[in-house]
Design goal:
By secondary structure, the protein is α/β, with parallel strands linked by helices. The protein has a single domain (2-193), classed as Rossmann fold, CATH 3.40.50.300. It is 57% helix and 14% strand. It is built from ten helices and five strands. It has helices at 14-25, 36-42, 48-54, 57-61, 65-88, 104-110, 124-132, 135-141, 147-171, 185-193, and strands at residues 2-8, 28-31, 94-99, 116-122, 176-179. The chain has a five-stranded parallel β-sheet, sandwiched between helices.
Amino acid sequence: MRRIWLGGSPCSGKSGLADRLARELGLAVYHADDYFYHHASLASSGSTLARLASLSPEAIFLRDHETMLADFIAAGQDEFPFILADLAKKSDNTVIIEGCALLPHWVAQAKTAQDAVFYLVAEESFQRRTYAKRPWVKEVLEQTSTPETAWDNWQHRDAQYARFIAKEAQKHTFPVLSIDGGLTAEEVYFWVLTRLVI
């Protein structure tokens, strides 16, 4: 199986890009983030993944930034083996794997010579604008005692995660594209497509 890894930070357009690539190239797609709670249910009770999945929005977002970021990264580390296990069950010749949990260090260890790897990272201002358009975000924030603080903490964590992912991806010489709204969806699509040999 050939795997096309499409990782990055939240609100960078990974899901939509993966779906378009799958549709136009006739490929299977696996959205890793869709399996977060399933993977958490399989994880050991002492893992960060299981603990994070059990927390309320209040407990997740009303904490210090460093702890929030560390937990987000650790949960991705915990989840990666479950992602690989899911992929091992697939019979497709080529599959696009998309999600925030695709940490560059683990992808570098898992990838084969025929695999392709890309990372999209959202600039904070673009990230904030995109999150603000999503109706479910307000519902999450309303479950906290101080929604404004929770919002700022959430956005700060994801902006830090974007910088972390970009730095780690560059260490492994993976292509990284910064998403700030300056490129159209078409331009982002062709940025990947021109680097992808099917």
